[in-house]
Design brief:
heterodimer, A: six-stranded mixed beta sheet, elongated, B: MetI-like fold, globular
């Protein structure tokens, strides 16, 4: 498969300068009876940003997306698309397009008819629709499918048709609900790359909902981690990976070891946190934590060493229960004295030093610990 | 997966009971019917010479031809009324009634009357439509009319009213099924592609339910064409359709004429079904989803 070519529309079209945000959510809240699906979600999406809403199933990410699309009406809060208040506007009056998880292709329409549907709704002249459909089908490499119906297409082909159908109207924002979840695993990486390139070329903002952190971190300019209807943390992938803001984010993101305990002492930029597996020293920035209060911190698995020296101020002794070799890293699963799991990643090119069943002392530098703050609202 | 292969000996043997049954109750009677309709002479005898005189006699009678026309117009009227009404009911039940409990209750309320026979349901309309019937009493009570309306019972209007109530659910049922099989995301996808609700209906929902509409129309067409009971009870002696003519000839021992009308009815129905199949390939239902 080659990459998708050029912009969806005529590449010579003038690019208007839009200084305002593509999307803004202001404290959006949505309830279903007693169940709160989205609770005070605020978000700013700049022009042409790739945003990933990441979270476990039932965290409210899809409901948030549906609120943006207008398929759900929020009980509270405001939604602005391109600076225009659209909170009460129906979907067909919003400058968005949406790609559904199962693609939602119209079974009775041919691919060409389907892709041209959005233009038809915009009341474009027939000749213009025909030529643009032709152009778009060609650039999405599905020109040969023009007269086929969705029933006879493969998963990858359906995905392309759904994307072409959504992109042809050149919306300000494209909403994608787990857009590659229905594809074969082998196809996903290629499609991910294509979509990222397409997004960069067209400058359309993508709001991509996923539960797969690999997707979110490799695609997103901005990653929004959601849990229990709220945003736990939002920021660039590096920030979320390196400085998880809450115990949930740290636990949800792969490769973090989370420790919970009580703040025992605060001294020269570090807090001493007493945990069931011993005391640890954690640096803090900003407001000092309350002594005696509960606290949690995390340390990444690759920052741990199995040969601690004086530099490694935090130590824990644990027994190795499993070793997984991924090529780039060798992951050791340890059982901590309190029964929790501790992960330690060794650089894959190095020789194995710890065998299953072996007890080892692991250590890491104080500065490698990340103290968690409160949940962001 | 079935372990019985297509065209194997076992598959043919398994088809024997059904085939024998169809042969006995469908094919043989139809052949007999056609045969009797071609009998010449006057005697009830298998030795009768074969001729098309019976058909010529039927088609050269203006009254009978008019009756064929009336029957077709009446059936078309019913198809139109039950089609629109049935679609509205089906749409209301599947799209507007959100609570599953209410949906079940309403659906049962529509379905339960079908557990009684057509004849009984037809007769049940008589006390409603009569001069002192429920409808007239209600109309007079409300003050909509001073004197009872006689047009209800023993009239085409009355027959149509009763048949609409009898057959609307036949038009609605298949539509309910088709509406239920439309994924909500399809309508949502159309909406995000800037289609307002009415356009979503005409471009997405209606085309996808078309097979259900056609099947419903076929059911109504077949039932109304063959319904002599309602016409006889509600229409009294004043009104008759093709199916009543069969009964009339039969009671008058005009077995040849009865066969001719029966064959004619059958041909009409066959044409109707063939036309319907040309519009929608019912056998391929659900193949694309």
């Amino acid at each position: 498969m080659d990459t998708l070519t050029a912009k969806v529309d005529d590449p010579a079209a003038p690019v208007t300068v839009r200084p305002q945000l593509d999307l803004e959510l202001r404290g959006v809240r949505k309830r279903y009876g007693d169940f709160v699906a989205v609770d005070g979600v605020s978000l700013k999406v700049e022009k042409g940003q790739f945003v990933c809403l990441l979270g476990p199933s039932g965290c409210g990410k899809t409901t948030t997306l549906r609120c943006i699309a207008g398929l759900e009406e929020p009980d509270d809060g405001g939604i602005l698309i391109g600076g225009k208040e659209v909170t009460r506007d129906p979907p067909w009056e919003r400058d968005i397009a949406m790609m559904f998880q199962d693609f939602a292709l119209f079974p009775h329409m041919t691919v060409a008819k389907q892709v041209g549907f959005g233009l038809e709704m915009l009341k474009k002249p027939k000749s213009e629709i025909a030529s643009r459909v032709k152009h778009v089908l060609k650039s999405f490499e599905i020109a040969s499918l023009a007269d086929r119906k969705p029933g006879s297409l493969s998963g990858g082909q359906r995905q392309r048709v759904a994307l072409a159908r959504a992109m042809i109207t050149e919306p300000r924002i494209l909403l994608l609900d787990e857009p590659i979840g229905a594809l074969d695993y082998s196809l996903r990486e290629t499609v991910m790359l294509e979509l990222k390139l397409l997004q960069q070329r067209t400058g359309i903002s993508f709001i991509w909902v996923t539960h797969d952190q690999n997707e979110a971190f490799s695609l997103g300019d901005l990653v929004v981690v959601m849990n229990h209807a709220r945003i736990e943390q939002q920021g660039p992938p590096e920030e979320i990976l390196q400085r998880p803001g809450t115990a949930f984010v740290a636990g949800f993101v792969q490769g973090n070891n989370v420790f919970r305990g009580r703040v025992a002492e605060i001294a020269d930029g570090h807090v001493r946190i007493e945990t069931p597996v011993g005391p640890f020293f954690v640096p803090f920035t900003g407001a000092a934590p309350v002594a005696g209060g509960e606290a949690s911190f995390s340390v990444r698995a690759e920052l741990i060493t199995d040969a601690p020296s004086e530099r490694h101020g935090n130590r824990v002794t644990a027994r190795c229960t499993a070793v997984e070799y991924f090529g780039s890293v060798r992951r050791h699963i340890f059982e901590r004295p309190d029964g929790e799991v501790l992960k330690y990643d060794q650089f894959g090119a190095h020789a194995a030093r710890i065998a299953i069943g072996q007890t080892a002392e692991l250590g890491w530098q104080k500065e490698d610990c990340v103290l968690h703050g409160r949940v962001q609202r | 997966m079935s372990t019985i292969r297509v065209r194997s000996a076992a598959s043919y043997w398994l088809a024997v009971p059904a085939a024998a049954w169809m042969l006995g109750v469908v094919v043989v009677p139809i052949v007999l019917l056609v045969w009797v309709s071609l009998w010449g002479g006057r005697a009830f005898s298998t030795a009768s010479p074969l001729t098309i005189d019976n058909y010529i006699r039927f088609f050269s009678n203006q009254t009978y031809l008019k009756l064929v026309g009336t029957t077709l117009v009446h059936t078309a009227t019913l198809m139109a009324v039950t089609g629109v009404l049935g679609y509205c009911i089906a749409y209301f039940l599947t799209m507007k009634v959100k609570s599953p409990l209410w949906r079940t209750v309403l659906f049962l309320a529509f379905i339960v009357p079908f557990w009684t026979s057509t004849l009984i349901r037809a007769i049940a309309w008589v006390p409603f439509l009569g001069v002192n019937g429920v409808i007239n009493q209600t109309l007079m009570f409300v003050g909509a009319t001073q004197s009872p309306i006689e047009a209800f019972l023993y009239s085409r209007t009355g027959i149509t009213m009763a048949q609409v109530s009898l057959y609307t659910m036949m038009a609605a049922g298949p539509v309910v099924y088709m509406l239920n099989s439309i994924a909500p995301q399809l309508r949502e996808a159309a909406m995000t592609l800037k289609a307002p609700p009415l356009t979503v209906f005409w471009r997405i929902v209606f085309p996808l339910t078309l097979p259900g509409v056609v099947i419903g129309q076929v059911l109504v067409f077949l039932n109304v064409m063959s319904d002599f009971a309602t016409v006889a009870t509600i229409g009294g002696n004043k009104h008759a359709l093709l199916s009543n003519l069969v009964l009339l000839f039969y009671e008058g021992s005009q077995i040849r004429a009865a066969s001719v009308v029966a064959v004619l009815l059958m041909v009409c129905m066959l044409i109707g079904v063939v036309v319907a199949l040309r519009v929608v390939d019912i056998r391929r239902l659900g193949a694309d989803r």
